[in-house]
Specification:
Helices cover 56% and strands 9% of the residues. By secondary structure, the protein is an alpha/beta fold. It has 2 domains: 1-29 and 139-304, 3-Layer(aba) Sandwich (Rossmann fold), CATH 3.40.50; 34-64 and 92-138, no CATH class. The chain has a 5-stranded parallel sheet, with helices on both faces. The chain is globular, with a radius of gyration of 22 Å. It binds dephospho coenzyme A and adenosine-5'-triphosphate.
């Protein structure tokens, strides 16, 4: 099964691309890390209680006020609803938590690291479960939409990674604010900038992604050259309109299909040793390319 990592920065268009990939003609299954992260902090979960314990005392608006009960829920009705689960607590106020953790200051970076440590293990477990489900169903490929794909190391498991990026940073902020307004949010330009700065620059992610197409650590005959190898790291520049984005996604998927045809995933599924060897080789290549990229970046920084 082909693991297709999909990443980018906030509001660069990952969800728009994943919507294209999950609908015809691609119709791929999707594992959405943002969605799993939301489920991981629903009232009653372990992560929910950990967040309240750590952030609660210093964040007065951490929990949402529950809306008043609808008129139908009269006291006499409640007598007959013993089988309903007891409320597990008020939902988290995500906007307030976002204000706590997104930004450049040391305090925010520390808080973000704490939040990641609380949520990411649950997201990882849920992702592995979802992957297993896709595997036993014999899926040819699955899209992993993970905003922090490189930061969390999930890129190492992916045969192909697609970064959705924009060249113009102002366009990213504009789209983020427009989406927030359309959803009735009240994000300020300052908050939008802080969110963007809480992740790697998306152009750096694009560079990192292209580094997967052979960073020069393997001899040429092992690394492969040209065409198919380019499908290990692909960048979609999303500065144009949605029609252009759809066309770009089509081109990217043509490359991915040429690299990993369906028959190959059947061989890997039906002959487990072949599947295991292919996955191990993938992992080794991704680790080597990642290290080579880190080393190159350190050397470039040292030159400055
Ligand atoms: C802070 C929270 C509550 C804010 O919620 P909100 O609904 O406003 O944003 P949402 O979850 O939709 O995320 C929007 C985007 O923000 C970016 N983002 C989210 N979490 C992080 C993070 N820890 N670090 C950097 N960027 C992040 C991603 O690009 C994401 O797509 C939420 O983002 C969260 O719980 N983050 C921690 C979990 C996480 O790392 N999620 C990313 C996928 S694993
Ligand atoms: N090519 C495009 N033209 C116009 N608007 C676009 C384009 N691509 C994305 N958008 C809009 O930009 C906003 C952000 O896109 P999207 O939600 O797909 O980003 P995202 O990377 O998934 O964000 P997040 O990291 O917050 O999940 C959305 O309102 C979307 O409709």
């Amino acid at each position: 099964m082909l693991l297709l990592g999909l990443t980018g920065s906030i509001a660069t268009g990952k969800s728009t691309v994943s919507a294209i990939l999950t609908s015809p003609p691609h119709s791929l299954p999707l594992i959405d890390a943002d969605l799993l992260a939301r489920q991981a902090v629903e009232p009653g979960t372990k992560a929910y209680h950990q967040i309240i314990t750590y952030f609660g005392p210093s964040t007065p608006d951490l929990l949402l006020r529950l809306p008043p009960p609808p008129p139908a829920a009269k006291p006499q009705d409640e007598k007959h609803s013993d089988d309903k689960p007891a409320p597990k607590g008020r939902p988290l106020n995500r906007a307030a938590l976002g204000r706590r953790v997104f930004g450049d200051t040391e305090a925010k970076k520390r808080d973000r690291a704490v939040l990641n440590r609380i949520i990411h293990p649950a997201v990882r477990r849920a992702m592995f479960k979802a992957l297993l489900y896709c595997y036993v169903r014999g899926c040819w490929a699955v899209v992993l939409d993970v905003p922090l794909l490189f930061e969390s190391g999930w890129d190492r498991l992916c045969a192909s990674v697609v970064v959705v990026a924009v060249r113009d940073p102002e366009l990213q902020i504009r789209r983020l604010l427009e989406r927030d307004r359309a959803q009735g949010g009240g994000m300020t330009p300052q908050e939008a900038t802080e969110r963007v700065r809480s992740q790697w620059d998306v152009r750096l992610k694009a560079e990192r992604c292209l580094g997967r197409n052979g960073a020069g650590v393997l001899p040429g005959f092992l690394a492969g050259k040209g065409g198919e190898e380019e499908a290990r790291g692909l960048v979609i520049w999303n500065d144009g309109d949605k029609a252009e984005l759809r066309r770009e996604v089509g081109l990217v998927m043509d490359k991915v299909r040429r690299k990993s045809p369906r028959w190959w995933s059947w061989v890997c599924l039906l002959v487990p040793p072949v599947g295991f060897a292919a996955a191990s080789w993938q992992l080794v290549r991704n680790l080597l390319d990642g290290w080579a990229w880190e080393r190159r970046r350190k050397m470039e920084k040292a030159k400055l």
